[in-house]
Design a protein that fits this description.
Helix content: 25-40%
Number of domains: 3
Strand content: 25-35%
Structural class: alpha+beta
Number of helices: 10
Order of helices and strands: HEHHEEEEEEEHEEEEHEEHEEEHEHHHEE
Shape: elongated
Number of strands: 20
Length: about 300
């Protein structure tokens, strides 16, 4: 089976934006290996068959099953019976259960009967997930949110639905403007795919995006959340820290920035109880992510945005 990577996920997100969620064999063939990979992986499954074929005069004829010949075909006025490979008549539809199980992995708690369509082919309830250490977050999927009609479907149904503490709407749309919905965060799937495993969602990024919804009035250029876990630059979450040592170091750097007092790496590491001789050693691979927001000067470090 062809491995699923970012090109295949990108294709499926594009297909999910189609007006009708049924795709012909011919339409998928245009995408070559990526289309076949989606079928092989089970992300696209049979959703019925096309009911027509073309005869010798290029006139539309209904494809029928002949029990004597045990095959599908059309009755052509000149050539008589013309066999049609039924596999070419398959209409494919997305398997949202498998797709989101792949994107979210073990974090997803699927509904007992699978995804539930809330509004036709516009909005689905996928399940829930513990995306933070708080209560589970209800997960919906919506598509074509740049279409005013589909956007209205989502907003109206959300207004009418039972209130929940946290609701996440993942969407295949690359949004021009994200709709505001009470207790709901709308996040484009493409924006939270992992760099390391680009066919799956990165939960650190998703958690940071979720916390934008809380409504923090972040006016500081550099801001660190109260639990020292999330670093914001210009009001946007950019990094998530989990280790106690990392949190302590970043808190000291942020405080030094607000006090306009650059701090020496050796001094800060010693206060933090770290045996590392540099920030590079203390943070390991994470240092490259944090370093882009910092500048050294004669042994002192400060945020420079």
């Amino acid at each position: 089976m062809t491995p699923i990577g970012n090109p295949e996920i990108t294709l499926l997100l594009k297909l999910l934006e189609a007006k009708v969620l049924r795709f012909t064999h011919t339409a998928l063939d245009v995408h070559g290996d990526r289309g076949r990979a989606m079928i092989d992986a089970g992300f696209l499954v049979s959703g019925g068959f096309e009911s027509v074929g073309s005869d010798n005069a290029d006139r539309v004829r209904e494809a029928i099953f002949d029990p004597v010949r045990n095959e599908f075909g059309v009755q052509d006025s000149l050539r008589g019976w013309v066999r049609i490979d039924r596999s070419t008549l398959v209409l494919y539809k997305p398997d949202l259960n498998l797709f989101f199980a792949h994107l979210l992995g073990d974090n997803l708690r699927s509904l007992p009967g699978g995804a539930v369509a809330l509004v036709g082919d516009a909005v689905w309830h996928i399940g829930s997930a513990y995306l933070t250490k708080r209560k589970p977050t209800e997960i919906w999927f919506s598509r074509r949110l740049n279409d005013p009609l589909f956007r209205r479907y989502l907003m109206d149904f959300s207004d009418r639905s039972q209130a929940v503490d946290r609701r996440l709407v993942l969407t295949s749309t690359s949004l021009d403007s994200i709709p505001w919905i009470a207790r709901t965060k709308v996040v484009p799937i493409a924006d939270v795919l992992s760099w390391h495993s680009p066919s799956r969602i990165d939960f650190a990024t998703l958690e940071a995006r979720l916390d934008e919804r809380i409504g923090l009035a972040i006016t500081q250029t550099v801001y660190l959340s109260d639990d020292d876990a999330k670093l914001y630059i210009h009001g946007q979450p950019v990094l998530l820290f989990r280790g106690k040592l990392h949190k302590h170091i970043v808190r000291c750097l942020v405080n030094a920035h607000h006090q306009n007092k650059p701090i020496k790496a050796a001094e800060l590491l010693a206060k933090a109880g770290s045996q590392a001789g540099s920030f590079d050693q203390a943070f390991g691979p994470r240092w490259a992510e944090l370093k882009q927001y910092l500048r050294p000067h004669q042994g002192y470090w400060r945020f420079e945005i």
